[in-house]
Specification:
alpha+beta, L-fuculose-1-phosphate Aldolase, 7-stranded antiparallel β-sheet
């Protein structure tokens, strides 16, 4: 990996982390974004517990896919092993975003998936946003962050991570992913808005049901896949 490419990765990850703040998805030092260079298997990630106002590209930590620090004088995010687990299993993703955003986290704390109630949701996710089971005590004691990643992977054993780019970790919060840090943050922003909409919908009508499949298919596939026709770049 060239020095220039390395610096670009760090800058992209730094900007994505700052975009979490600008999007009002962060309180305190909660949240982190990472990006991976697949050729070198190097991950760039926010340092643990560093205030966003004190963050710059030079503080972004580089770690190998084995979790060892490659560059940086600070400790990487405490969620690093969760990110790495996702990179190992979801081969096509280039970035991971984790927040404790208010509405998505509320669904996670309620241990409820976010239902797909309407077309706004269907434009971005092909079905409900799954929620993991609560992590077992023996997994917490073993290697909490890596086991959290394994829990997400297990939740997706029958779900295509290309079509559902987010998950709720029960009692914890949301993770999202994309082809690059910018997309991962965009998915986090969309997830939070949908979580808020659906929270209100369920309050208004506790019997709300998932959108019918024909409408789900129409809205999702007009924006995604080989026959998509939404937008100007088709």
């Amino acid at each position: 990996m060239s020095k220039a490419r390395l610096e670009k990765l760090k800058k992209d990850v730094y900007k994505a982390n700052m975009d979490l703040v600008k999007s009002n998805l962060v309180t305190g030092t909660f949240g982190n974004v990472s990006g991976i260079d697949r050729d070198s298997k190097i991950v760039a990630i926010k340092p643990s517990g560093v205030d966003y106002s004190k963050l710059s590209p030079k503080e972004i930590v580089l770690v190998g896919i084995d979790g060892n620090i490659v560059e940086g004088g600070l400790n990487p995010s405490s969620d690093t092993k969760t990110h790495i687990k996702l990179y190992k299993e979801f081969k096509d993703i280039g970035a991971v975003s984790h927040t404790h955003s208010r509405y998505a986290t509320a669904w996670a704390q309620a241990k409820r998936p976010i239902p797909c109630l309407g077309t706004t949701h269907a434009d971005y996710f092909y079905g409900e946003i799954p929620c993991t089971r609560v992590i077992d005590d023996n997994k917490i004691d073993k290697d909490y962050e890596e086991e959290t990643g394994a829990l997400i992977i297990d939740t997706f054993k029958n779900i295509d991570y290309h079509n559902i780019k987010a998950v709720l970790v029960a009692c914890h919060g949301p993770f999202a992913w994309g082809k690059d840090p910018k997309e991962a943050v965009s998915i986090s922003v969309i997830l939070e808005e949908i979580a808020r909409m659906n929270y209100m919908s369920v309050l208004l009508n506790p019997s709300s049901e998932n959108i019918k499949k024909s409408l789900l298919d129409k809205h999702y596939f007009r924006k995604h896949g080989k026959d998509a026709y939404y937008g100007q770049d088709r």
